[in-house]
Design brief:
This protein is mainly α. The longest helix is centred in the middle third of the chain and has 36 residues. The protein has 4 helices and no strands.
Amino acid sequence: MGERSTPEQGADQPRGESAPAAAQPGVEALLRWSKRHAEAAREARATESGPGATSGPAPGSTSGAAVRETLLGWLAGLLRLACWLVALLIVVYVVFRLTGANPTNMWAAGVESWAPRLDLGLAGLVSAGGPQISVVVNFGLAAIVWALLGTAAHWLVRRVAKL
């Protein structure tokens, strides 16, 4: 004898099989959301390009603006990288000073010679609390300023590139 279905399963489904995916409430909501999202994305793309706008230069061709934006993007990345490397050098200097690194070591001597040149004039800002605390505060502040300068320069050059 054939198994009868319950009203929840539908009249044409045998017992034990689930309802189709579209009949399940969670899936219906997901499908409705997906359709709304796709429509919104289509509308956004249509308003970005405008009614008479083209989709950009032909493949393989480059416009002057695209080349300028790419070059300035690379420059912005290099600026940020350089500033963050200086900040890292200053942090390594602080670690070397706190741990009492061997000053005759090549790495310690190199860091010792460069970090004071890159302190942005902040080396003598705080003198209270002993020499180790002043090194941490002064050079730590210099490292933070270098990182912020690099990030701000990156942001600014990227904005100028998009003009």
